Amino acid sequence: MTKRPIHPLRAMREHLNLTQKRLAEEAGVGAQTILRAEHNKPINAESRRLLCDYFGMTPEALGLVSNEQKAVGNRRPPDTPAIALPEIPTSPIAQAIAQGIVLASKQLESADMAHTRFHVLQRYGLAPHLT
């Protein structure tokens, strides 16, 4: 049985412990958009831009651009930073730390939760630093 690789958008969403619905709300897109993107279905350019802005990543890094779109020249704007997916820790100590960070992030739930979560993850090097 061959395992299908996880979609980059789903990997980032799960890394930040977000549901499809929550990511859609925070990024300003529809929940169906997240579902479509994670199943390699095309999404519109504005939704791609909003998701890329939310994660601070390129459409290619998030798996939002098909090979056909790349060939046509649907590239990221030159001022968009190219940020690779972070390495997920595998040692027991790193996993325990990551679990602690996730628990701390959950405790910071508030009206400004997305902003707070992003800055907490940034502080621990689990989210990109945007300039």
Name the beta content range: under 5%
| Gyration radius over CA | 15 Å
Query: Are there runs of 5+ residues with pLDDT below 50, and where?
Result: none
CATH class category name of the largest domain: Mainly Alpha
Number of helices: 7
What is the ordering of alpha helices and beta strands?
HHHHHHH
> So what's the overall shape?
globular
Query: What is the makeup of the main sheet?
Result: none
Helix content: 40-55%
CATH-assigned fold name of the largest domain? 434 Repressor (Amino-terminal Domain)
Number of domains: 2
Task: Give an overview of the whole structure.
- This is DNA-binding XRE family transcriptional regulator.
- Residues 9-62 form the HTH cro/C1-type domain.
- Keywords: DNA-binding.
- It comes from Thermosporothrix hazakensis.
- InterPro entries: Cro/C1-type_HTH (IPR001387), Lambda_DNA-bd_dom_sf (IPR010982).
- The chain has 131 residues and is mainly alpha-helical.
- It has 2 domains: 1-83, 434 Repressor (Amino-terminal Domain), CATH 1.10.260; 86-131, no CATH class.
- It is 52% helix and 0% strand.
- The chain has helices at residues 8-15, 20-27, 31-38, 45-55, 67-72, 92-107, 113-123.
- Helix 2 packs across helix 3.
- The longest helix has 16 residues, at 92-107.
- It is globular.
- The mean pLDDT is 75.
Structural key phrases:
7 helices; globular; 2 domains; 434 Repressor (Amino-terminal Domain); 131 residues; mainly alpha
